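OP here, attaching both records as promised.
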Amino acid sequence: MDLSLLGERRFECQQSGHCCSNSNILVTLTYKDLFQLFLLLDKDFRKLLQKISFYKLTQSNHVLQEQMVLEPIQTSEGDIIPGLRKINDSCTFYAHPNCLIYPKRPMSCRSYPLAYIKVKQKIICTWVKNSQKTCPGIGKGAVLSQRFIQDLGDKYLQEIETHNQVVRELNKEALNGRSLTARGALWVLIAYGEKKT
């Protein structure tokens, strides 16, 4: 695992909201993120469904699939990744200039603008694609230490690996002809999050 960030290593959030209102930024959700959102929404599954999307992966975006550390869930509706819904290009939880769930925001938001991606079966740390053009915090503030990058990466990747273990079990069932709907898979991830807390 190569978690050393190349190039410019300064970053300080400017609270611009560009990351929350950029249609090209996908906020993926782990089992832990889903359970936290479920709790924030008073355990109302219908409210949760209004706040997330099931992003479908297709053959045309195979490069993206190869880079993703979050494994897609094989459902009866296709291969999906749960993520926060976008409304008019903005995150469903963004109300300019604030994130409505900031203390409980998903892991991919907490690590932004850093991304951990797979390149030739190796996980590396990089800036989120195009973030150096859109994020005014890159190049400002203190230098991100190697220790910070490593600790954040370790925490993020540990959560991802636990999530992926659950997804692999779901996918094994799907291969045996017992695939769930996207909603059914979501319930399994939430239940797992509840069990882990």
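Record two, same layout:
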Amino acid sequence: MPPKPKFKRVLLKLSGEGLMGSKEFGFDFDIINRIADEVRVVTELGVQVSLVIGAGNIFRGSMAAEAGLERAGADYMGMLATVINALAMQNALERKGVETRVQSAIPIASVCEPYIRRRAIRHMEKGRVVIFAGGTGNPFFTTDTAAALRAVEMGCDVLIKGTQVDGVYSADPKKVPDAVRYDKLTYQDVITRDLKVMDGAAIILARDNKVPIIVFSLHNPGAFGNVVGGDGVFTMVN
């Protein structure tokens, strides 16, 4: 059983790569189902949960732009890929009995709701999980920035980012074995040291609106519930 929650309303940011597992592309449905289970447990504790999921398991606009695609068009392709990931997670959550709504910044009326801030808040107040898809609806912004924006708009107590490692390091620990792991950082630390927590726009948005950021490993079972209770291994940015 996870510890008593310290937050009432949270936004969980997941990378698309995190849904791949050991695969090179697409989905590892065992991981998606495990994440859905962890979200279910947290919602059963009375926490209001929303999600933003990246698209790196399907399409990365920045990489496509480097290959010669026009950047704005490539970014829109990436935004559409986030809708696919959102629908996959919605399906997993609802099979576990968790009422879920997908809202897209790019209206796709046949498959999900358009993003409407007040409606999203109302869904969360009713105990539904809301998955925000389509990024910010604009090219040149990452899903990190979309997560920070939605966390501010929803009045979330914290933005929780699930990554491939258990916090923020001075360098990529997979490439630099003696990289230093941080327990606590300020927003300014992240900016001045150029730590790759989230992109600069997301950090500044969180800083200016006083939304703390927690970074933890997506791959430790039960970690999401522990983090929401202030327990476990993570880095706090505030």
